Amino acid sequence: MARNQDAPYDPAPPIPTYEEAVAAGSAWHRDVDPRDHASAAEAEGQSLLTGRHASDPSSSSNPPRGRRPRGYRPPTVETDDESNLFSSSDSETDSEDEREAAQVRREMQELEIDDSEVHRRARLSWGKRIGLLSLPQWRWKWRWRLPSLRRNRGSASGSAGGDSQGADGAGSASSGTGTQEAESSRSRWCFQPPGLPKLGSGALFLLVARTLALLMLMAFVYLLFASDLFSGMARRMGSRMFDPESVRIHVQASVDPRRIRDHLKHYTSYAHLAGTAGDFALMEDTEMLFRKYGLEGVTRDVYHVYLNYPKAGGRAVEILGADGKPTWSAKLEEDDVGGLSAGRQTFAFHAHSKSGDVKGPLVYVNYGSEDDFKVLKADGIDTRGAIALLRHRGTEPDLGPRLKAVEEAGFVGCLTYVDPADDGFLKGATAPNGRYMPQGGVQRDSVSLRHWVLGDVLTPGWGSKDNMPRMKVGQTKGLIRIPSLPLAWRDAKPLLQALKGFGHPVPNGWAGGVPDVPEWWTGNASAPVVRLKNEQDEAERQPIWNVYGYIAGIEQSNKKVVIGNHRDSLASGAVDAHSGTAVMMELVRILGDLVARGWQPLRTIEFASWDASEYNLIGSTEYVEQNEDALREGAVAYINLDRIVTGGTFRAAGSPVFRTLLLQILNRVADPHYNITLRDRWIQREGDIDPPGIDSDYAAFHNIIGTSSLDIRFDGGQPYPARSAYGNYELVEKVLDPGLVYHTLLGQVLGLLILELADGPLLPLDLSTYADNMVRSASALETWAAKMGAPEPGLMLTSLRHASRQVAHSVREFRSFETKWENSVVSAGGWEPSSMGRQRMEYNTRSAKFESNLLDEKGMPDRTQFRHVVLGPQTWPRGAKEPVYFPAVREAIIAKNWTAARIAADRAATILQAAADGLSK
User: Fold this and answer.
1) Short-list 449, 456, 450, CA closest to 302
2) Nearest-angstrom CA–CA distance, 181 and 175
3) Where are the domains of the chain?
4) pLDDT tens readout for residues 655-709
5) What is the pLDDT of residues 774-799, one digit of tens each?
6) What does CATH list as the number for 767-920?
7) What value, to the nearest 5°, has the Cα angle with vertex 474 and ends 470 and 480?
8) What does DSSP say about strands 326-329 and 296-320: parallel, antiparallel, or unpaired?
């Protein structure tokens, strides 16, 4: 628009910088030298174009910081040409609409300016491109005052001082009135917080609009997540974004036999009896490795328990002459086979044996079974006051109950040995070149009565902490009352030779394979007298140390899968239990690495290193007793590792709920020696999960709190130098598992088990198999009771039969949810609605509690720690062929106490019915 030619020329003041132009309350003096106009205009152009023309080198320079000239009138927009942003106009010649347009353009210009350079000035202009979070925090430390609303009168010709004048400087009244009306019509309210630049109406509108939009967006997002709309997706994917199949493949491929070898070699490098310095050192190593591999919450847990230790000169086995002096003495100790870098190999002794120095005639009792003692009694052999010579193996591998039978037969002491017919040169090559026990090998063992008491024998039923009550040694039912010692068969040979002519020739099946024993006799009260000396150190409050570490779950962190293995050993422990330790540590490393990459399971994974397991499963039992309530609510499953590789045949023992899952996993793992999967080998031999025993650390989890437990291992049904110095690292590496092939396969099976139990949306516990087994076992129990002479066994056990069928029916209805959930997720394109997610987690919780609902809180008669009414150990082991279901009923039938059998059956039926109702809720 052309300038009005009639208006007198008024020299323009120098053009200010942008900061000076927009600063409130500034004014210019009119006596400015016109020669400064050009430089001032150039400075203003550079300031206003900062950030606009990045290609202009001058755009990066800082605007001048001098004092602002006084008398400045803000520049206005005269035309619609946006290239002429800085021309001035007179209010007298511009129409009101043009002035209004100029004002709007000026405000738009202010809003469009990128003042990244201006941020460094003491006073800032508020621009729409400045994000709230982009400003440094110190900029916002104004005084706490309420913001004020201030009238801002905009005028194209008004000065900063607020008085409107005409071009000639006089200004008539009429023109003043018109100007005031125009200004009044354009008056607007501006939001002016104290300490901040004023906001124009356009800026205020945009600020408010964007703030409201942001609040609405935040509210929408909050409603989405507060309503748990995407909880299914979060639970299935979370922040992990890991494909489950990719994780399985990664874990299976990551099991490294070299690392397993390193761990195995380290853990077997020195002696480490429970509670000793070597054991403490390995505990610290385990604690360090748990942390190094990325486990959370790594802690040590101390208990104070009853342990015994052999003395160097405190043991002796001698044949005494007529004058009472020894004519022969046993060597007792194994040859030092080397390989120990610290300390010495442990003495030959029995864990939890009784101290004593006794004498008596020698009597050979074969395996010490119930039938063997019947033979001795039938032959008229007086066993009172005698010393028993007992061979290992037989139908019952647990030595404790057999020594209890020796004690109850009147013997005052017992000697044990491994016969070469069971484990020695008659079976094959002996260690160190073969897997069998050499003539100088000694099998140490525990003689605790774990069928009666689990854990610390002085605190049955509660954790062995310092402030807890303790029984006296003579009060416990968990200890043998006679001293005992183990021998090598080289030491047993002179004893067997000395029996010739005493008692009776042994019956068929009693003669062993010890060479140079031409005749095997039983011995009797007239047999040579043997001295058994077993003086030892006994500690009633010996500290032991468990170590724990976990990987937290993201969906149900209070639910956990526990993987455990014991750390202590009676000898070097390469097979028992560090074959399991080495594999467990490798899985800790692999899963810790996955966590470092961002993976997390749905449920928590806890790893545990137990102590004093060789004495009576102490470490694991004390942990269960100390944390009983929490474990009942939180433990989903327990996987046990121990002597995991002694052969090439995969075996499992524990709860039937793992059968389907185990078969699925075995189908993914191939045996390179047979070029078929482990599942194919399992089916070929008609394998199944064996009933849970009490031979390892899953006993407390199963019997005391009812956690579904599984023990996995490779063996071939062949013996090995158990708990002997010959069962060392070299034997494992060169004989039992060259290349650690089966250690690697076991690691793969373990890794897949952990993933399915801890990270599967649905907990893969096969309750149907368990229920079907109960129905079959209830029927078999009736048949067996009839053979035992029970009157009307069908009537006596009718309640148990009906209850087991009710459980099977409830399980079928309960498991129908799996189909419902799968259909829901498939129909939703893979997403899980929040309501279905809650139902799924409740389903998992009930599945995990199924076995814990099968407990009788009173326990079995005289054995209160054994609470499982469906699966439990016998009071007196009678071999694996006996029924294993419904132990209390079975014990009453064996005792031919039919009333007690009916009462036990009715009580078990009541518990089964309650478990069925728990599934139906």
Assistant:
1) 456
2) 10
3) 18-128+147-161+179-217, 251-759, 767-920
4) 999 999 999 999 999 999 999 999 999 999 999 999 998 999 999 999 999 999 9
5) 999 999 999 999 999 999 888 899 99
6) 1.20.930.40
7) 115
8) antiparallel
Task: Determine whether 356 is exposed, middle or buried from the number of CB atoms within 10 Å of its CB (0-12, 13-18, 19+).
Answer: middle
Torsion sign, CA atoms 374, 380, 381, 383:
positive
Other beta carbons less than 10 A from residue 593's beta carbon: 15
Length of the chain measured in residues: 921
The reported pLDDT for the residue numbered 101 is: 55
CA 90 centroid distance within chain = 80
Residue with tokens 């591999």: 293
Q: Is 273 in contact with 309 (CB distance < 8 Å)?
A: yes
For the residues of 166-204, what is the DSSP string, one character each?
Answer: -TTS---HHHHHHHHHHHHHT-EEEEE-TTS----HHHH
Return the SS3 of 725: coil
Q: Which amino acid is at 455?
A: G
Helix (H) or strand (E) holding 129, with range, is none
Distance CA 536, CA 273 (A): 14
Domain 251-759: which CATH number of 2.30.40.10, 3.40.50.300, 3.20.20.70, 3.40.630.10: 3.40.630.10
Q: In this structure, how many other beta carbons lie within 10 angstroms of the beta carbon of residue 813? A: 11
Is residue 445 a contact partner of residue 727, using CB atoms and an 8 Å limit? Answer: no
pTM of the model: 0.76
Residue with tokens 């047993």: 492
* 240 contact partners, CB below 8 Å, separation of at least 6: 554, 598, 599, 600
Q: Tens of pLDDT along 463-491?
A: 999 889 999 999 999 999 999 999 999 99
The encoded tokens of residue 856 equal 């009788």
- Work out the number of other CB atoms within 10 angstroms of the CB of residue 245: 8
Angle, helices 277-292 vs 578-596, to 10°: value is 20
Each residue's pLDDT tens digit, 497-518: 999 999 999 999 999 999 999 9
Helix (H) or strand (E) holding 268: none
How many other C-beta atoms can be found within 10 angstroms of the C-beta atom of residue 308?
20
Q: How far apart are CA 752 and CA 454, in angstroms?
A: 30
φ, ψ (nearest 5 deg) of residue 715:
-150, 170
- C-alpha 813/C-alpha 19 separation (Å) is 78
Q: Is 786 helix (H, G, I), strand (E, B) or coil?
A: helix
Tokens linked to 585: 């540590």
